Amino acid sequence: MLPEPVRLADLPHRDAARLLDSGVPAWVCVNPVEYHGPHLSLHNDRLVSEGLCRHLHARLWPSEPLLLCDDLEVGVEPVPGPGTRAVPFATVRTLVVDAARAIHALGARRVVFMTFHGAPLHNLAIHAGVEWLTAHGIPAVAPFHRLMDQLVEPSEALLDRAVAAVRPERRAIARAELPHDYHAGTFETSLALWLAPASVSPVYRELPDCPEIQPDGALLRASAIAAALGRRRVSAELRLAAWGVGWQKLRPFPGYTGRPSWATAEIGESFGRLLIDEYARAATEVLAGRSPHPPAVMSWLAWATLGGRLAPAGAK
Questions:
Q1: pLDDT of 169-178, one tens digit each?
Q2: Per-residue model confidence (pLDDT) at position 312
Q3: Helix or strand holding residue 15 (H, E)
Q4: Inter-axis angle of helices 265-287 and 144-152, nearest 10
Q5: How far does CA 78 lie from the centroid of its chain?
Q6: How many CB atoms lie within 10 A of CB 33?
Q7: 3-state class (DSSP) for residue 21
């Protein structure tokens, strides 16, 4: 049985502080209002985040209440489209750190930040909240960093597990495309079908596949230079960015990657449980103080974009 969240902001101050005093983690979600094609909701990242919160909390703290600090409805570099709200990096970073200060003042002893928005600057803003809490003696973790890390340098074993519920005749294609299927495609649509099925329009079954993406040439050349200089990780990050920028250049812009029509709730559950396994491992190690928090991907992007000021308005 999955827990229903206790929304801390809806409680009197003393009641919220008393619940946090037990040491149960506080959950802080940070997600944009963002176009997810014609088939998923503008709140899809929040719905997926909250669904994963419930499963992850049931895995790690089954007898404790799920203390949710609601959702910061902001996101850096959301996908352009009807209803999208873009918020600058500096603003999101400030709001996340302010939220960290507030939950610390309320008495939180451990904090989990949740998102399902993959823009690197967005996750750097969340990481600022992790760093603020850590500096003030509060263990904090942002498990989505694990998924971002896999997008940069995918594990062959995890790719095999991720596509286990895909129909056998489609599995090889889904596996090859998964590292670039990061927005409202087969896997995110499948997660929504599992975690928030009422939010998914049946039109997903009729959508054409995303057109073939041509990675951005300049970023691919930069990736090759980084590889030649022995900067393997930076090279992989630039290669991922090249695919993201190439997708953004598609015209007409579809608003989704991959093949939404392949999505099923079964794929969503299989993929989601894989995420929960990875998230649980990261949360357990970091919140218990056994390992430092993993770094955010593309940490160089903050200075490369002058604190987000040079970032395109609608990139992801």
A1: 999 999 999 9
A2: 58
A3: helix 13-21
A4: 110
A5: 12
A6: 19
A7: helix
